[in-house]
Amino acid sequence: MSTHHPSAAIGVFDSGIGGLTVAREIASRFPHEDLLYLGDTARLPYGTKSPETVVRYAHKCVEFLAQQPIKAIVVACNSASAAAVPDLRRSFDVPVLGVIGPGARAAARATQNRRIGVIGTRGTVRSRSYDERLAEISSELQVFSNPAPLLVNLAEEGWVEGEVPQRVVETYLEPLLAESIDTLVLGCTHYPLFKPLIARWFATLERRIALVDSAVALTDELEARLAEDDLLRRDHNGRTLQFYATDDPTRFRDVGRAFFGHELDDVRLVDI
Ligand code: DGL
């Protein structure tokens, strides 16, 4: 039985703006829940940093969120989920959900030939977190990973369609396709923005490749977890969506719109 209250908010943190793809999924699935989002834009990117540094940053973020009335913390950032979730679970008494476990479980359900591709930041790929979660599910699953760091910058530039992103996506994915994967995990907050381009390209290849968006997989598990703890809110109108950034809220608001799919009305600067 949880000691948290259903009226508390869902806390989400990310290294910056990308986690808004996860917040978007949560906000649309739970229209009655308040959301508190922290983007650590001052310390971004996490995906190039050592696990020790990412753990330290993640602690700061969760300490900030845990001071507010929250009932769960979602680590939207794949790089932070890979490096810090076990540590955060030990250190804080609020339920902490990362994106790696749900993404791995969704990939294991989706694959038919047991060959799964994963793209993510260098940090996520180096951590082998997806490989480990998948190996726990079944020793028959084979995982092929490739870091796809340029997609982060392209997404933040709003460059998600056209010749250049197409070429970059193909360069990163061709080695995985050569391994006959039938499932691809989009293991970074920014990659769902390339879903239409990737799906169109895959449709021209004569094979079916399932795309796993960790944001969707995480939201499914968050829903199950909140229901189990009796923490879902079903009838609260006028919910609040509060955003915090550790650097320049104006840029957060401008770039974040495309990730969140709506205007971000209330973005505040915080120093953590
Ligand atoms: N949010 C990060 C992730 O999902 C991408 C950006 C970064 O490297 O901080 O891995």
**Structure ligands:** D-glutamic acid
Strand content: 15-25%
Walk across the major sheet and give the strand order: 4-3-1-2-9-10
Estimate percent helicity. Answer: 40-55%
Record field, number of beta strands:
10
* Unreliable runs: none
Mind telling me the C-alpha Rg? 18 Å
Label the overall shape: globular
How would you describe the oligomerization state of the chains in this entry? single chain
Structural class: alpha/beta
Gap between N and C termini: 31 Å
How many independent structural domains?
2
The CATH architecture of the largest domain can be given as: 3-Layer(aba) Sandwich
Key features of this structure:
6-stranded parallel β-sheet, 46% helix, Rossmann fold, 2 domains, 272 residues, 11 helices, binds D-glutamic acid, alpha/beta
Task: Describe what this molecule looks like in 3D.
- The radius of gyration is 18 Å and the shape is globular.
- The chain has 272 residues and is of the alpha/beta class.
- The chain is built from eleven helices and ten strands.
- α2 (51-66) crosses α3.
- The two termini are 31 Å apart.
- The model has no long low-confidence stretch (mean pLDDT 96).
- The chain folds into two domains: 9-98 and 216-269, Rossmann fold (3-Layer(aba) Sandwich); 101-214, Rossmann fold, CATH 3.40.50.
- The strands form two sheets. It has a six-stranded parallel beta sheet, sandwiched between helices.
- The longest helix has 16 residues, at 51-66.
- The protein has helices spanning 20-29, 51-66, 78-91, 100-110, 122-127, 129-137, 150-156, 163-177, 195-204, 214-228, 249-260, and strands at 9-14, 35-39, 70-75, 96-98, 115-120, 142-147, 183-187, 210-213, 241-245, 267-269.
- It is 46% helix and 18% strand.
- β9 (241-245), α11 and β10 (267-269) form a beta-alpha-beta unit.
